[in-house]
Design a protein that fits this description.
It is built from 1 helix and 14 strands, in the order αββββββββββββββ. Strands 5, 7, 8, 12, 13 and 14 form a 6-stranded mixed sheet that branches. The chain has a 3-stranded mixed sheet with strand order 1-3-2, with helices on one face.
Length: 209
């Protein structure tokens, strides 16, 4: 009769058989746990958040799941997502705008103050009357009477001219001619402001005798 509590050759054999059977199972279990830990660390290293235009990148990693009740294994994919975004600053510029002329009428030589918004601090062209479709050699329209800056961006001044466009004026085709000044007659003349941001609205000025 076998005596299991005695240190015999068959007890040694039984212990060896148990060890041989349990070793693969224990090795497999430890390997699964190691793989789970490695997957978690890998997903943590690949995760990042950057301020920018939003984009998505997804990566899938297999994870082995052991079902202890059915002694079976299955593979499940876990997807991690990385999000990036950027912020773009946009500068909005507005065209000049005239709100009033003071005075709004007067004879030649009257100093007029233009009040408005978005006047350039360095360069604003002031037009008086309509353009004949020609321009000065510097490229400015023939009805530009002065160019000046605005320290506060809200006011400009000009002197009412006594005559219309004159001097060397050129067409868009490049043909230039000398124009003799013609005295302006009493009436209503349009005033506008041109700068690097565009052309303003038109306000009327009444020229008197």
């Amino acid at each position: 009769m076998i005596q299991w509590n005695e240190y015999t050759w068959y007890s040694r054999l039984a212990a060896l058989i148990v060890f041989i059977l349990l070793l693969p199972i224990l090795t497999f279990y430890l390997g699964v746990q190691y793989q789970k830990t490695a997957d978690v660390l890998s997903m943590a290293e690949t995760s990042s958040v950057v301020v920018g235009n939003i984009s998505h990148r997804a990566s899938a990693k297999p994870v082995i799941v052991i079902d202890s009740t059915s002694n079976s294994t299955s593979t499940t994919s876990i997807t991690s997502s990385t999000t990036t975004s950027t912020t773009t600053a946009t500068t909005v510029t507005s065209k000049p705008q005239i709100t009033s002329l003071k005075p709004s009428s007067g004879n030649a030589g009257t100093e007029v103050t233009i009040t408005g918004l978005n006047f350039d601090r360095r360069s604003n062209q002031i037009t008086f009357g309509t353009s004949g479709g020609r321009h000065h050699k510097d490229g400015s329209a023939d009805n530009v009477i002065s160019t000046s800056g605005s320290t506060n961006g809200k006011t400009l001044t000009f002197i009412v001219p006594a005559s219309g466009p004159s001097g060397i004026l050129c067409s868009d085709a490049g043909a230039c001619v000398g124009i003799t000044a013609i005295r302006l007659t009493p009436g209503t003349y349009s005033v506008s402001v041109i700068n690097k941001n565009g052309t303003s609205n038109i306000v009327q000025f009444t020229l008197t005798q």
